[in-house]
């Protein structure tokens, strides 16, 4: 390689890394703050060099954070499971053996995803209040199912459309029942699709805040609500705050990093492969 | 004879419909019926904190929406926030995507680190920005900016909207980058090479070849992104709580204030109805773009 090719590559790389550094820096800074002691985290000028300690992680984990984390896990996993369980048959009925006017049904589903929460917020709140379901983690999981189901149906359908139709014909000649068709053919073939759908559902429900803050208070409060307790910023708990923020963000960050390919497909509702 | 044929057809239709029903009924019950109730409540005056205050109010709630200063400010803030966040993050996302699509060192790691802001819990991200980066006393940014005389700027209070837009741009640029990068990667490098051989310069081939190719991807990103950014709530709650005054109160935050701080059910419902009408217009555009992209995919 001659220098005429290498130099632009170096320049572009340097520029690229600079931009990436700027965007990644807040995350890096969160991690650094989390590894400091409180006086180091609340020092002026900011402490750059320090001996890292896991003290604040221990404080957070041995304190009142775990119940919030567990609530987040229950709401996210349960709602994701429900989305796949309800969404897969529905996607099948829209893609493989389509019902009449399946395009209209599809449009109906996806239009509800982008209905602002303003549309149904007040009645849902009143209903939850009257049924004593406020501050109930299972009620929150049902709300998350509603939020994610339209996207789930849409995504799963886009994956089902890619299965060669002959496979289903062959199965039907063999006299396979619907349930067997789903379990034996559909599920193994669109496992990556189910993974992508689950990832998106997990991200949205794990990070969800609006319903969490309005529909829960103590018993069912999720991880983002633990962070709200730092909002006043009166006491100087920046290291603890950073440790809690790091832990709260960890599951989605890891899942998104591992499944980058599924992430983009899910985020664009299947339009970008 | 005919009756059995018809009933067989009917059975077949129901066999097709059956797998769809649970999801359909569930979504219908949880979204459509509450929306009808929202419309119903919007014609009543009802404050949860005042027992017995439930009374028919006609169009009063809508009247106060269209005359209220708070609503005008919230609509303006929503528009300002959405347009600036989407505009800036599309431009930045396009830039980063183009760098990542060219020959650079450590491409994979760059992309991995770049998507982190989108994955970080929004409440956590906002808190980190507010308390550890922008805090005028202990924050890193005022410290780094102090040689330029900007050391003691209280970003969150002095420039609240700039702060919210910055944090949201930080979050949405990776999203735009991912989508635009996918578009760039579908480009055939031989076409660019041919253009270069034919004497096209970098700007010409960007404008004539690259941009038309990634345009649908930019549109898709911008439209999907705006449907989410219109609903921005988390970062406003954490950074500014809609303030100072009403400087960063957007429609979702105003709804929160009216419904859950003021408990005015009727007024909140009327805001909901208006928000649905606005969103429907935006969403229809978004879905049309999406369908056209699907048709492109199908033709390939």
Describe, in plain words, how this protein is organized in 3D.
The complex is a heterodimer of chains A (273) and B (300). Chain A has 2 domains: 3-55, no CATH class; 57-267, MetI-like fold (Orthogonal Bundle). The mean pLDDT of chain A is 85. With 273 residues, chain A is mainly alpha-helical. Chain A has helices at 3-34, 38-41, 55-62, 65-95, 102-113, 121-130, 137-160, 165-173, 178-189, 191-207, 210-215, 223-228, 238-258, 260-267. Chain B is built from 15 helices and 2 strands. Chain B has helices at 2-17, 21-41, 60-67, 69-101, 107-114, 116-119, 122-133, 140-145, 155-158, 160-185, 189-197, 202-229, 234-239, 251-261, 265-299, and strands spanning 44-45, 55-56. The model of chain B has no long low-confidence stretch (mean pLDDT 84). With 300 residues, chain B is mainly α. Helix content of chain B is 76%, strand content 1%. Chain B has one domain (69-299): Orthogonal Bundle (MetI-like fold), CATH 1.10.3720.
Blueprint (SSEs and pairs):
The complex is a heterodimer of chains A (about 270) and B (about 300).
Chain A: H1 3-34, H2 38-41, H3 55-62, H4 65-95, H5 102-113, H6 121-130, H7 137-160, H8 165-173, H9 178-189, H10 191-207, H11 210-215, H12 223-228, H13 238-258, H14 260-267
Helix pairs in contact in A: 1-13, 3-13, 4-7, 4-10, 5-7, 7-10, 10-13, 10-14
Chain B: H1 2-17, H2 21-41, E1 44-45, E2 55-56, H3 60-67, H4 69-101, H5 107-114, H6 116-119, H7 122-133, H8 140-145, H9 155-158, H10 160-185, H11 189-197, H12 202-229, H13 234-239, H14 251-261, H15 265-299
């Amino acid at each position: 390689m001659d220098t005429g090719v290498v130099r632009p590559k170096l320049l572009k790389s340097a520029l690229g890394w600079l931009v990436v550094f700027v965007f990644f820096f807040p995350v890096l800074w969160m991690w650094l703050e989390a590894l400091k002691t409180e006086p180091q985290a609340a020092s002026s000028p900011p402490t750059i060099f320090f001996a890292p300690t896991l003290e604040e992680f221990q404080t957070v984990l041995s304190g009142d954070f775990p119940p919030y984390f567990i609530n987040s896990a229950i709401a996210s996993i349960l709602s994701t499971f429900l989305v796949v369980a309800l969404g897969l048959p529905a996607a099948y009925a829209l893609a493989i053996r389509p019902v009449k006017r399946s395009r209209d049904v599809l449009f109906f589903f996806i239009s509800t995803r982008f209905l602002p929460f303003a549309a149904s917020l007040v009645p849902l709140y009143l209903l939850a209040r009257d049924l004593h379901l406020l501050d109930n983690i299972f009620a929150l999981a049902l709300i998350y199912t509603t939020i994610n189901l339209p996207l789930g149906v849409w995504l799963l359908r886009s994956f089902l459309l890619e299965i060669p139709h002959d496979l289903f014909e062959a199965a039907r000649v063999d006299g396979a029942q619907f349930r067997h068709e789903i379990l034996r053919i559909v599920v193994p073939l669109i496992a990556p699709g189910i993974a992508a759908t689950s990832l998106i559902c997990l991200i949205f429900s794990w990070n969800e805040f609006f319903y969490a803050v309005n529909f829960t208070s103590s018993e069912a409060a999720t991880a983002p609500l633990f962070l709200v307790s730092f909002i006043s910023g009166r006491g100087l708990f920046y290291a603890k705050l950073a440790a809690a923020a790091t832990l709260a963000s960890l599951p989605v960050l890891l899942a998104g990093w591992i499944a980058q390919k599924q992430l983009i497909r899910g985020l664009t509702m299947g339009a970008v492969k | 004879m005919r009756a059995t044929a018809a009933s067989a057809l009917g059975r077949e239709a129901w066999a097709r419909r059956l797998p769809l029903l649970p999801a359909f009924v569930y979504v219908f019950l949880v979204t459509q019926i509450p929306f009808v109730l929202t419309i119903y409540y919007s014609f009543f005056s009802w404050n949860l904190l005042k027992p017995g205050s439930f009374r028919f109010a006609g169009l009063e709630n809508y009247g106060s929406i269209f005359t209220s200063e708070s609503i005008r400010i919230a609509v303006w803030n929503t528009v300002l926030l959405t347009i600036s966040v989407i505009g800036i993050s599309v431009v930045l996302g396009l830039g980063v995507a183009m760098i990542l699509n060219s020959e650079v060192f450590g491409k994979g790691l760059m992309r991995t680190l770049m998507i982190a802001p989108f994955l970080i819990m929004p409440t956590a991200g906002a808190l980190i920005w507010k308390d550890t980066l922008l805090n005028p006393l202990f924050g890193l940014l005022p410290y780094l900016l102090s040689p330029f005389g900007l050391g003691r700027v209280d970003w969150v209070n002095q420039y609240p909207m700039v702060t919210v837009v910055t944090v949201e741009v930080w979050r949405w640029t990776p999203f735009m980058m991912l989508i635009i990068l996918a578009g760039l990667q579908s480009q055939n490098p031989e076409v660019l090479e041919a253009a270069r051989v034919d004497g096209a310069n970098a700007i010409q081939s960007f404008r004539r070849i690259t941009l038309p190719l990634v345009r649908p991807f930019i549109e898709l990103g911008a439209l999907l992104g705006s449907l989410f950014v219109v609903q921005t709530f988390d970062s406003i709650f954490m950074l500014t709580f809609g303030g100072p005054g009403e400087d960063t109160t957007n429609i979702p935050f105003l709804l929160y204030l009216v419904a859950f701080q003021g408990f005015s059910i009727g007024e909140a419902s009327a805001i909901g109805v208006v928000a649905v009408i606005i969103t429907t217009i935006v969403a229809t555009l978004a879905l049309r773009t999406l369908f056209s992209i699907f048709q492109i995919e199908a033709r390939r």
